[in-house]
Write a sequence for this structure.
């Protein structure tokens, strides 16, 4: 298991976990992050980890100690990582993970321990997970609506669905039923596949036989390209819609020509250049993309890099408020962060403008979404 320390700069990987003092830390703010840098979800977790190179090293005059662990997309490993943050690192904040199932596991630990938790993937925030957890990605109903509205505007009447056979796939299929069907869409077929699967031929053949006007793919990362490619290879000519879980250059790289014409919900970080100067998301989006592409190359920007980057944009607002009433390393400080999350308004970040409330733990509105398509191997705004 790899562990990273980020203080004044990102340091080398260490394989052993150093012994931490039993007393609470007061000279620094500890942030524990579990994300997915290996396995099927690595295309999501690696940009999240990379973006940490461009976040502040101190907030409110207090140094940040950022500890990053890989969970491989496994909920059990993510749980172990989160418990280490609680017991060994005495974390003030926990973040993660890059995919939905381990994010749920991390949220459970954070809520048991009473530590603010920033989910870096969409996940169901149930009452037992609501007190301490917020989610950085856009909520699926906001992103789904822009897809269904585009379907209706383009005379789509029947929709096929293919998605993960896990909680992420469930979230999208349930939203299609909850929002899309009342808008007049009919679900022609539902197919599922596992994240590690290397073939979806059987599912795609059933979808092609059903011949819906459009197909929605409820998948993320590089795996989202699998049904995209198979559908085109099997002759499907209808519209294909992808979720914001697929919004990365890796999708185009893997899907190749099959990516042309895809319709994809995305956060504004994928195209801040075309936003009006008045958009609060433009400045942070440009800052992140400039730094990220400056190091990782042109067109390396990623929806997922925005999730971890934006979590620190929020901490820049809430930590100074919390420091007025409590010291890092204490339950009082964690509670002060939680309260500040709910009181601070219009927190501008690359992926949206956050306004968390007791009932809304996503805190985003329509400013957090755009609709992309792929033309000549590049993302562009869809019409």
């Amino acid at each position: 298991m790899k562990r990273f320390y980020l203080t004044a700069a990102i340091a080398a990987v260490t394989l052993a976990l150093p012994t931490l003092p039993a007393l609470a830390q007061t000279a620094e703010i500890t942030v524990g992050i579990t994300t997915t840098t290996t396995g099927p979800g690595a295309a999501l977790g690696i940009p999240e980890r990379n973006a940490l190179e461009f976040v502040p090293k101190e907030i409110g005059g207090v140094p940040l100690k950022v500890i990053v662990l890989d969970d491989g997309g496994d909920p059990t490993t993510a749980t172990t990582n989160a418990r280490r943050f609680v017991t060994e690192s005495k974390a003030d904040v926990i973040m993660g993970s890059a995919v939905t199932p381990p994010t749920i596991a991390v949220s459970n630990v954070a809520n048991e321990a009473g530590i603010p938790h920033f989910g870096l993937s969409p996940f169901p925030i149930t009452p037992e997970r609501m007190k301490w957890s917020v989610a950085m990605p856009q909520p699926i109903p906001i992103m789904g609506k822009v897809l269904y509205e585009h379907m209706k505007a383009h005379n789509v009447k029947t929709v096929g669905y293919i998605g993960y056979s896990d909680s992420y796939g469930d979230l999208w299929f349930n939203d299609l039923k909850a929002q899309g069907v009342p808008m007049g869409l009919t679900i022609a077929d539902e197919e599922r596949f596992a994240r590690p699967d290397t073939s979806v031929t059987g599912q795609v053949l059933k979808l092609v036989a059903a011949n819906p006007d459009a197909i929605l793919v409820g998948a993320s990362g590089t795996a989202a390209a699998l049904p995209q490619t198979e559908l085109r290879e099997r002759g499907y000519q209808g519209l294909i819609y992808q979720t914001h879980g697929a919004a990365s250059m890796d999708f185009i790289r893997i899907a190749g020509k099959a990516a042309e014409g895809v319709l994809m919900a995305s956060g504004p970080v994928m195209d801040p250049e075309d936003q009006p100067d008045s958009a609060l998301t433009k400045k942070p989006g440009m800052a992140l993309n400039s730094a990220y592409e400056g190091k990782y190359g042109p067109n390396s920007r990623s929806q997922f890099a925005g999730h971890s980057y934006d979590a620190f944009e929020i901490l820049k607002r809430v930590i100074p408020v919390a420091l007025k009433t409590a010291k890092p390393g204490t339950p009082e400080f964690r509670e002060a962060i939680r309260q500040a999350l709910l009181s601070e308004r219009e927190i501008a970040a690359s992926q949206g403008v956050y306004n968390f409330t007791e009932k809304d733990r996503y805190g985003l509105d329509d400013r957090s979404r755009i609709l992309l398509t792929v033309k000549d191997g590049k993302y562009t705004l869809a019409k």
Remarks:
- The radius of gyration is 20 Å.
- Residues 124 and 382 are 29 Å apart (CA to CA).
